[in-house]
TrEMBL record, chains A, B, C, D:
This is Amidophosphoribosyltransferase. It holds the Pfam family GATase_7. [4Fe-4S] cluster binds at C263, C409, C460, C463. Gene3D superfamilies: 3.40.50.2020, Glutamine Phosphoribosylpyrophosphate, subunit 1, domain 1 (3.60.20.10). It is an enzyme of class 2 (transferase). In the C-terminal section; belongs to the purine/pyrimidine phosphoribosyltransferase family. The gene is purF. Mg(2+) binds at S310, D372, D373. The keyword Nucleotidyltransferase does not apply. It comes from [Clostridium] leptum DSM 753. Binds 1 Mg(2+) ion per subunit. NCBIfam families: purF. It comes from the Bacteria. Pathway: Purine metabolism; IMP biosynthesis via de novo pathway; N(1)-(5-phospho-D-ribosyl)glycinamide from 5-phospho-alpha-D-ribose 1-diphosphate: step 1/2.
Amino acid sequence: MLNHSYWNSKEPNGIEPAEKPHEECGVFGLYGDDVMPPAYAAYNGLLALQHRGQESCGIAVNDRGVVSYHKDMGLVSEVFHPKDLDKLSGQMCVSHVRYSTAGDSVPENAQPLVMRYIKGTLAIAHNGNLTNAHEIRRELEHRGAIFQTTIDSEVIAYIIARERMHSGSIEEAVRRTMPQIQGAYSLLVMSPQKLIAARDPNGFRPLCMGRLGKGYVFASETCALDACGAEFVRDVEPGEIVVVDPSGVKSIRDHCTGRISPCIFEYIYFARTDSVIDGVSVYEARKEAGRLLARQHPVEADLVIGVPESGIDAAIGYSEESGIPYEKGIVKNNYIGRTFIKPTQQERRNSVRIKLNPLVTAVKGKRIVMLDDSIVRGTTCDRIVSMLREAGAKEVHLRISSPPFTWPCYYGTDIPSKNELIACKMSVEEIGKLSGADSIGFLELDSLCQMIGKQEKCFCDACFTGNYPAPVPKHIMEGKPEQRCTPVHR
Amino acid sequence: MLNHSYWNSKEPNGIEPAEKPHEECGVFGLYGDDVMPPAYAAYNGLLALQHRGQESCGIAVNDRGVVSYHKDMGLVSEVFHPKDLDKLSGQMCVSHVRYSTAGDSVPENAQPLVMRYIKGTLAIAHNGNLTNAHEIRRELEHRGAIFQTTIDSEVIAYIIARERMHSGSIEEAVRRTMPQIQGAYSLLVMSPQKLIAARDPNGFRPLCMGRLGKGYVFASETCALDACGAEFVRDVEPGEIVVVDPSGVKSIRDHCTGRISPCIFEYIYFARTDSVIDGVSVYEARKEAGRLLARQHPVEADLVIGVPESGIDAAIGYSEESGIPYEKGIVKNNYIGRTFIKPTQQERRNSVRIKLNPLVTAVKGKRIVMLDDSIVRGTTCDRIVSMLREAGAKEVHLRISSPPFTWPCYYGTDIPSKNELIACKMSVEEIGKLSGADSIGFLELDSLCQMIGKQEKCFCDACFTGNYPAPVPKHIMEGKPEQRCTPVHR
Amino acid sequence: MLNHSYWNSKEPNGIEPAEKPHEECGVFGLYGDDVMPPAYAAYNGLLALQHRGQESCGIAVNDRGVVSYHKDMGLVSEVFHPKDLDKLSGQMCVSHVRYSTAGDSVPENAQPLVMRYIKGTLAIAHNGNLTNAHEIRRELEHRGAIFQTTIDSEVIAYIIARERMHSGSIEEAVRRTMPQIQGAYSLLVMSPQKLIAARDPNGFRPLCMGRLGKGYVFASETCALDACGAEFVRDVEPGEIVVVDPSGVKSIRDHCTGRISPCIFEYIYFARTDSVIDGVSVYEARKEAGRLLARQHPVEADLVIGVPESGIDAAIGYSEESGIPYEKGIVKNNYIGRTFIKPTQQERRNSVRIKLNPLVTAVKGKRIVMLDDSIVRGTTCDRIVSMLREAGAKEVHLRISSPPFTWPCYYGTDIPSKNELIACKMSVEEIGKLSGADSIGFLELDSLCQMIGKQEKCFCDACFTGNYPAPVPKHIMEGKPEQRCTPVHR
Amino acid sequence: MLNHSYWNSKEPNGIEPAEKPHEECGVFGLYGDDVMPPAYAAYNGLLALQHRGQESCGIAVNDRGVVSYHKDMGLVSEVFHPKDLDKLSGQMCVSHVRYSTAGDSVPENAQPLVMRYIKGTLAIAHNGNLTNAHEIRRELEHRGAIFQTTIDSEVIAYIIARERMHSGSIEEAVRRTMPQIQGAYSLLVMSPQKLIAARDPNGFRPLCMGRLGKGYVFASETCALDACGAEFVRDVEPGEIVVVDPSGVKSIRDHCTGRISPCIFEYIYFARTDSVIDGVSVYEARKEAGRLLARQHPVEADLVIGVPESGIDAAIGYSEESGIPYEKGIVKNNYIGRTFIKPTQQERRNSVRIKLNPLVTAVKGKRIVMLDDSIVRGTTCDRIVSMLREAGAKEVHLRISSPPFTWPCYYGTDIPSKNELIACKMSVEEIGKLSGADSIGFLELDSLCQMIGKQEKCFCDACFTGNYPAPVPKHIMEGKPEQRCTPVHR
């Protein structure tokens, strides 16, 4: 019989650890209410951006200068009920979805951050990660600042508030703020009269602009424009500030340097496949990765399958290029929820089969090429390969539509430290052997340009190369800086 | 500005009506605890069966004759927490997921039904719909019975209790019960000592049997066996009773008539694609439907896409047969939740785009064949077709992997009455015109046999033909019998 | 430091065990809606009856023959929100509050029980305890009955349903039911057309009748009439059935035997002090008990105090009779809630001081007479006495406004078995010594008549005498019958 | 029949408006863990202080320098579960209960405020109201501060953080902070190493100190010391700062001016009757008020009653002085909850009778003196008087144990503006007439000294006299300052 230590003590609450890297946020804002109430547009937009963050979410609206907001832990569909949306009347909004990291998963950290400063109320929603947040906090603390959250938005809010004292306008304050903050940020700021969007000069995280009736929308991805019925206008340029107010739209490009480096992993995994980021279709990039893999790592096989959902696009591309038929070989259960209960006694193999189940009739006796988007810790690919073998697959050839991860990310994703990355500890051959696959092939680093249809490198691939396009302080590179510089409370 | 009648009054709570027919339940039972605690097996099994019912769920366990249970409204991942599973210790279990119908969505109707009768405690989980429940209720009421729920399990429980008085065993009572109940049922009964599975003589709803260590599992679909790590043994035969107790497994086949008629729509839509029902792979049946459509309704086109998720398998089959490349043309948002908020003001078109978004880069300028599994009320296909056209599709050819619905179902699904079925009101041509597609093609009725690889008809296709293999009382055929024979309370 | 076994393992969840006996239920019903909607009247009435049961509550309304209901675990103020009451439209209602016993604290047991039988829908609310429920269940099970709850209402429902088949009316069925059920019951039955109240021939539990506009109210206590603005009409007579329907009010007195025995402990502790039961003011009875104690157990003292809330009325009486000034000597914290968290490490003395705190300035240096209503297990009086001593009391004289408990109750309260009753194990002197009081005095058994102003005994005092006025089956007297005759599930 | 505008539109949600003034907070802190874990002590202490605030509550603990906290909307018994307390391990704590005002009832405003500043983490709990918070906010905003809440604690935190930069210790920073903040504050500050208590120089709000084992406790009232088993040591002096750290206890008295003015209304109504504030027993003060009233406003009568709970102590005093017997004349329902649902249709009279019900047998035919603590808006006393008359009272003489309210309070209670105070609009005679009482008498202003046993005035009675002992800015006196100076969001 079971005792009460039945649950795996290494995984508190019996909850499965994350197997893929995570984006840390998504933002959505709307100026204008002629088509629909901004809170409803935000609700639709956040639903479309939910893949970028499932921990908490929030909407702040501005009703003729008076800001109200609703935010809480949970999915968009859990946090917002019709009565909540109805209460959030206004003519513009900013909103946010946040990813659940293990550390500071607290209501205080939900966004947008709504705060009062000298010129009234500001609401700020932020996607990205500042690399000098620690230094700024220290400096602000030396001037008497207090911090109630551990989110970068609070740091940004302080600098904007400080700059606003010497600036003639909120946009000028944002313009003065940008040189002071380093790293990745796609930012929405709502003041009593204006909606402002800003993107860091590298353009690490995406940010696009659309039109909804007479109003303007800003969102992390174009799929959020589609969801609220907005027309895509253009991407916010890296370094650009876009201001919308009663007088119309204005662009400030002082910080546009041209040395842009949007995150390549948005194309590989983070973004929704139907989004178009900086002019490149995510879906086409993924299919192209599959085609490239078919040329780089060809193999004789009977069918091509993808690990759902993220491996499917590359699988279609591989099939197209190789002529090997595409098949659905694995079925994913969409009802698992965020807190899947996993008893320790249950074999690891079974645990995967609750989420992913092979289509025996499709794979039995077949030589299979299986596409996946990436390998981080290497904890699941062996389970999937052996699951297919048990289902009767004669051969399993693993193709990964990205190069091996060898460096952590400091720009707003949770790609972990080197000692957790399997590709830092093993060669490709060893990873292949560990996975149990008959062969393994990663996308070549050189082909990332081609994947997104560019002639030359114009993106951040630091997680594959260690070439960090924006400075990362030494203390961050060396350790766990967050534990040194942020309040430790729950 | 908006007033408080902003919500569509026809759709209370702003919740979208169902666009596809629904299965009404799924069952899972385990006898034996040598591999894992039965409650954990049930949890895994119910997660795998969640597509069969999302309203409520429950698990009843039997710990050396003492039954305890936990059931509630909500998804499996919402209703069960580790502490709940830990409390449910035992050596066997029965469990259930229930579909949310508009009518009696009340906690009382959650299953398993646990009740005390002359021989102790019984727990009953039931998938299907009795066609003579009304008659039996009336007859039982004439003998003094009282009813506290509106579920058929309560009717079955009464008859079993009555028959048990004249029977030497619980299985004998179940055997005597079966001739008295008509319609569709796949039934699990847990007595203090035994676990019993029974399937109606027509075999309308699926029920299979597996082995988990030394124990035995019964489940609506094989995907639930996979999820708990059980080996598939065989299907429970239509009309068969299988009894598991300390002495082993026993089969009672008195009611096996050979005139079986499992539901064909399980293959077309209800079941999970990785299940194998009565020897036929659901995935292969769906792909075959696609292949058949490619032969029955060929068209020149650039690519084949499926409406996610249910149209994708047939799309792969159509692509395979026609040689037209398969593409992912539409992306589905998995975060919508069960209570999507839809403002009336928002155009119908947008509402669909929150759930389904076209991959513009894939479909632009292309001639498209789009596969869907069925058309019930005809309320969404036009929106999807026009969404594709707006995304730039040159042509859209609609292919439906089932014949037109022309008759309601009385055997445990919610295919509605004739006046709601579009194919009862319009010809195929008219439906095509309404949809806005360039062409439309339904799977031919005659090819259903071939779809599941059979020589002759051995299934129920009443929803397409009106040939009901088990008697349906006239009063049910004519009206809304539930309002006459069941308690009206919430 | 503390480990995780900090909580007292003997008291699961750190919840304090009950220190006073508990009533098991309260009922409220209204026929008529001219003054206010019945659900609102029930809400007010149940709030007034909440002291009779805090586990679960429910309201069933009848809207022109259609019954709807809402019930759940929790207090009235927690279970019902305005939207719930608004949904419960109708022209009559029955409602219920239930006490939380340790055993079957499950949602299924919440009342009213709403069920469908041959003549339509019935809703039943019941206060009391049948002594032959076990026998009836067995007999009904032999006829094929199934039981889904462990409440007596289900047993009563079955008999009414059976009798209804041979009766011309629901009231006739109730009339035929009464001789078959033994023990204590104050019963409300709502049929499609009628509201029926019935009280057992002994009249163990109270039941009164009032007028609200043109309608009629029934309630366990008159305080519920006051709360909804109804005028008191009269008590329902022991053995009487009162029927209200469109034709007016009708009384059936066949079972009125005159051998009545209402529960004396309602006056001592259970009922609310502002209620009048069977013509006797509860408050006056309690004050009279205090006066009697002053005569039976006089003592020289400086002040009289009562243990809040139940000891205060007797204290006022004692003061009045003795001339010793009444003082508030102990303050009660009303915010403790039902789930007070008690760490084991904390001394028992402190635990009591969170609930009850002495008024040091009032008691310091004083000789005190302290009134309490009863001593059951004897677990708290010593703590209160020593608390007063620590606050500086010079003497503490304990006066108990009831005789010692020496017998369990089988008629609907939870006065426990003899081996838990301290007065079965110790003499009055020993109890006094244990309590640490300078003197102790219980109300004399003979003065109970005088307490309620009667010439002769006309009540049940079985808990003090063992003279059970209605038969109690031997198996119940001897053991733990509930574990033998009821379903064991949670 | 009822329509959906059944609810009174003037009282949203059907919730009764407050009829008594409210305290705005209670604080509790403990340094030391030798007797019990600080979180448990706080839990007990907050339960005892719950009458000071029922909107939200929180506990912050310090575990060797690391602060964790748990706070939420709701009662102490609702917000804290054993698992929450177990997680809050530490060696010291600060904690808080907050009153629910209509305005900013938001989770953000729950206390303690936990924040990070230059020297680490601070947790602050505050009872009182700063009169210059607006000015400080403006000044801080001019220096770049941002505000995320509308509570004074955030203002105090900023000043402490600023002063800490120029101070050698946290207590020095608190010392420098005090001259900058005006108005009422009883403050607890927990730094990584120290627990600090500070009380404003006027001593408006109470704050006492106790000993628990080797540790020290601070609490708003002595009843909280009793609840956690601590010994009372002394009151924190107005203007005093008490510091507890590993080296022991230290007192800083620089700001002790001797011009103290504790709130007289703490004795009349706010504090718990078993507390002793600044050396005066609350209970004795209340009884003395009753005695004084008996001398100031004698009347021939048969009995004295108090409006529960707050009028009872004065009634006992009046009875003692006058010789007229004390009686319980009105019974209070303790189960109403914080959100009593009041239908408009229901007469106002009934609404009161759900909360307060007369003891008919006690009051019938009697001449009654009824004691209440205060009259604010005058909205309920007429209902209680007429309720007694209907119950048969021959005469009702109203005695109020405080002078008439004629001025608002700016020091941390919600005594409202003059145009809501009935005594600003009517003479005592008119109030008496309005109430329907046969006579009315307020406590004379001059006797407040005597009430608390002092020779001369040493308290704040601004609400009766308009003599504000601490400066109140003109803009606050004139209007609704909160709407001008605080963020407007929910």
